[in-house]
Amino acid sequence: MTRTVLVTGFEPFGGDATNSSWEVAREVARTWEGPGVLVPERLPVTFAGAPLALREAITRVRPAVVLCLGLAAGTDRVRLERVAINLADARIPDNDGAQPVDEPVDPAGPAARFTTLPVKATLARAAERGLPLTSSLSAGSYVCNAVMYHALGLLPGAPVGFAHVPELRAEEDVADFAACVREALATALELGTADSRLIGGAIA
């Protein structure tokens, strides 16, 4: 049975003409050679619309693995996020003009949800290939965090996660960042939710 992978990116926001997360998602789809079938999906940058679009895509695609992408300006490495928190605290309005402050993403949900991707195994493999990939303990409190939180709630038990990608500044960036995403997807398809118990984390 052919397995399907869902990769999402976001539409532009904050006055930008493009969004690196969608450009990387499209590059991953363009260069994907399997295993399985990869479906890219663009989400709105809205607290209300993004979870609905994600739910619709998951229902339609029935993916074995989900990796959502978002933009993190000011970084130089793709960041696999390890945790999403039940907090919406928007520094700027979303594309609908909504700006929740200190509100729950889901009033009925848990305080946090942890990625089910094999993050440490992915990082080890990426390091062997010299890929610009790292992990992060904060997905923020904007729409990216909300999407990760909802994604993990929609597919319990499956490999699901979120990655922040840097801004695309050079022509080769999109290929490098797409390679990081492909590594994460290939590892998840191989290992499922089983991760390596490697030393990692952060002191502060």
Largest sheet: 6 strands, mixed
What coarse outline follows from CA principal-axis ratios?
globular
Shape-level CATH architecture: 3-Layer(aba) Sandwich
What top-tier CATH class fits best?
A: Alpha Beta
The CATH topology turns out to be: Aminopeptidase
Distance between the termini: 44 Å
Family: Belongs to the peptidase C15 family.
Protein name: Pyrrolidone-carboxylate peptidase
GO cellular component, one term: cytosol
Organism: Serinibacter salmoneus
Key terms:
5 helices; 204 residues; six-stranded mixed β-sheet; Pyrrolidone-carboxylate peptidase; Peptidase_C15-like; Peptidase_C15-like_sf; alpha/beta; 33% helix; protease; globular; Aminopeptidase
In short:
InterPro entries: Peptidase_C15, Peptidase_C15-like, Peptidase_C15-like_sf. With 204 residues, the chain is an alpha/beta fold.
Question: Topology, please?
Answer:
Elements: E1 4-10, H1 20-31, E2 37-43, H2 49-61, E3 65-71, E4 78-81, E5 83-85, E6 112-114, H3 119-129, E7 133-136, H4 143-154, E8 160-165, H5 173-191
Parallel strand pairs: 1-2, 1-3, 3-8, 4-7
Antiparallel strand pairs: 4-8, 5-6
Helix pairs in contact: 1-5, 2-4, 3-5
